[in-house]
Design goal:
The protein is elongated and about 60 Å long. The longest helix is centred in the N-terminal third of the chain and has 20 residues, at about 15-35. The protein has a six-stranded parallel β-sheet with strand order 3-2-1-4-5-6, with helices on both faces. The chain is built from nine helices and six strands. The protein has helices at about 15-35, 40-50, 60-65, 70-85, 95-105, 115-125, 150-160, 180-185, 220-225; strands at about 5, 105-110, 135, 165-170, 185-190, 210-215. By secondary structure, it is of the alpha/beta class.
Length: about 230
């Protein structure tokens, strides 16, 4: 019997690409305030690099394309601005209604990887803390315990006093999201919608979710059948 629904955050409860846009705009504004650089020009350079270039070096390559000299410390400051800005993001379509409905029937929880200040600011901006009996930020456990580690899920099960077989994990990223939950024996649901940041598919069964759905609107019905 399913009693608990655990959610991933990024690209599950909201579109992660909106956070990326928000972060790049925050950095562009910082460059305008600190360097006098046109913020729209800076944002355009960041966005082109993010969409078409090397996502692991967006700031480096964008500044290079803008002929702006930089140091490692300066790039570090831009990364800090990106991670610590107050994001302008919102829930996907019917997500809030879905959370309201599910909260009446299931225990809801949230487990998310990522840099701690950024993840907490996302949750606060979305206004979703009230829905979850337990929130695990794996960064608080240490970088070694980000997914695919089972540590965060095991801590959550202990806090909730729940068995893995009574839980469903809803997430998006086959690279890391379902390995631990499959190992623990949870039900798994992969959520897809247009524009997600991570779209890689993996052939090995440990990466696969048991069910895949297009859009969060069908989640309530799918859960009722488990």
């Amino acid at each position: 019997m399913i009693t608990t629904v655990i959610f991933d955050l990024d690209d599950t409860l909201y579109p992660e690409i909106e956070y990326c846009k928000s972060g790049f705009r925050a950095v562009a504004e910082y460059l305008w305030e600190s360097q006098g650089l046109d913020s729209e020009q800076a944002f355009g350079a960041f966005w082109r690099e993010f969409m078409e270039g090397d996502r692991s070096a967006v700031f480096n390559n964008a500044l290079k394309n803008l002929d702006i000299p930089y140091t490692g410390n300066f790039i570090g400051r831009l990364v800090e601005v990106y991670r610590c800005h107050e994001p302008k993001i919102g829930l996907v379509g019917e997500t809030r209604l879905m959370l309201d409905q599910l909260a009446e029937k299931y225990t809801l929880a949230l487990l998310t990887d990522g840099f701690l200040p950024a993840q907490k600011l996302k949750v606060q901006s979305l206004g979703i803390e009230k829905y979850f009996r337990c929130i695990i930020y794996t960064e608080e456990l240490g970088r070694d315990f980000w997914k695919p580690s089972t540590a965060g899920f095991e801590k959550m099960l202990k806090i909730l006093g729940e068995k893995a077989e009574n839980c469903v994990y809803v997430a998006d990223n086959e690279q890391k999201d379902f390995i631990a939950t499959n190992k623990l024996g949870m039900k798994t649901i992969k959520l897809t919608f247009p524009g997600q940041v991570h779209t890689q598919n993996f052939d090995h069964p440990e990466h696969k979710a048991g069910i895949e759905i297009d859009g969060i609107g069908s989640l309530t019905e799918v859960l009722s059948r488990l």
